[in-house]
């Protein structure tokens, strides 16, 4: 009899690389006559107000129609509770169906035993990499074999959890291809989720072995370059909008990373490719190769800059090397650079978190992402939590609320501080950039004092602060820039009107121009500039409706602004602009300046006739 098996997964993008690798492995190793295998993507239907049970209804309809013999759930933090409810539904209505859990949420003997003791509806837990172990499990279930021979399986024997041997590392060179037209057509994925981010990996594992990280468990291994080239060529030719290479060390080695950049550069036709580079590999040639490939660095890992904390976490972190890599990426890579900091690490405390934030900004990072420490199953901080003084709420989510040296009060202080840093980054990013440009300006202290999340006006604090000569003006200009951008984002973007020679200027609004004593736009372009490098002169700025880019009021744009007057025609306006410019601009340059002035609300036109 054919075994009917289902693998269920759930995430925001509607795509799981791990699930697709498992699907391909089952298809290659088990004939359909022995195992009929299906993959179900479980997603919410509608919203809570309109249809809060819709997704369960859809799941149950599919479940009762197919009536699988075994159903497996790929579980992690974000779907643990949902899959718990679904597992109970399965066992209540199909008591003979075997319910299996795998995935990152089950990647631990301690967690597997906890799940089997807590959830009587759960039959089996599969730990570790599953491309070999899952097809082996289905094979044994199909022929009634001894489950004690399935590597990585945790099962009940006489009511108690029993762990089989851990599975060996998967041979990445032996895995079947996933990204091919026959195996994974892209069109259905993009139709279901037009903005889906497809994950890709060029290798597995991490040389760091940090005690808090899921990547630390498997051995560091690489996929064959031939496979990478073939799959990346297919993905990029398919025109996917977003691709994320989720390796802890892109390419595993610098030589392979450079080869991957060459592949992407050759085939990329507009896909946004996110990468996480190994800072040990980053130099100017690396950054230039990354730029040619159109790759973005989204975030770099700091976690903590404190030496004692890093030692407890078994994390090797070279502060100088990180700062050099961050500076190179920021200077030569035209994209916002962020860094990750963890709150709650053993050995850390609230003051050390502040120091890590200071280090991040001093290194050239533009935005800091905070994450409370989680004791993920399979990590040392989960398996040996007591050894590190780690206390977490529950097994799901394993949110750490205190650890050795990081007490409850520290946790509260650090979370409040993180909230204020995030508010500064979100509400006043230009003000933040101006602060970083001022030598000895303590951004961490300013973020806490300003408390922008409360809606308080920061201008009085800036006015009263002791600052170097001219620095107060720079901060106020940065604050005004942020206010202007927010105001423009709140308006509806409009196409500028036609520029027929006979069109009349109906109005000019000089108060739509923001005047500043420092070229703030230079700071937005070059993060490495300091306050002393900024020329102090009166500058005008325009902000487009619905946009975040400021136009400096200089050159032909300034000439067009000065030439504008109510009642003149566009033709007359063009003549005055040319006459007022240091160099006689072309008609196209004049029209571009006119359109900016119209789009930003400085000038209004009306058609004659």
TrEMBL record:
InterPro entries: BchE-like, Cobalamin-bd, Elp3/MiaA/NifB-like_rSAM, Methyltransferase_Class_B, rSAM, rSAM_horseshoe, rSAM_sf. It holds the Pfam family Radical_SAM. The keyword Transport does not apply. Residues 192-418 form the Radical SAM core domain. Keywords: Iron, Iron-sulfur, Metal-binding, S-adenosyl-L-methionine. Residues 2-148 form the B12-binding domain. The keyword Iron-sulfur applies. It comes from Streptosporangium amethystogenes subsp. fukuiense. Coiled coil: none annotated. This is B12-binding domain-containing radical SAM protein. Its cofactor is [4Fe-4S] cluster.
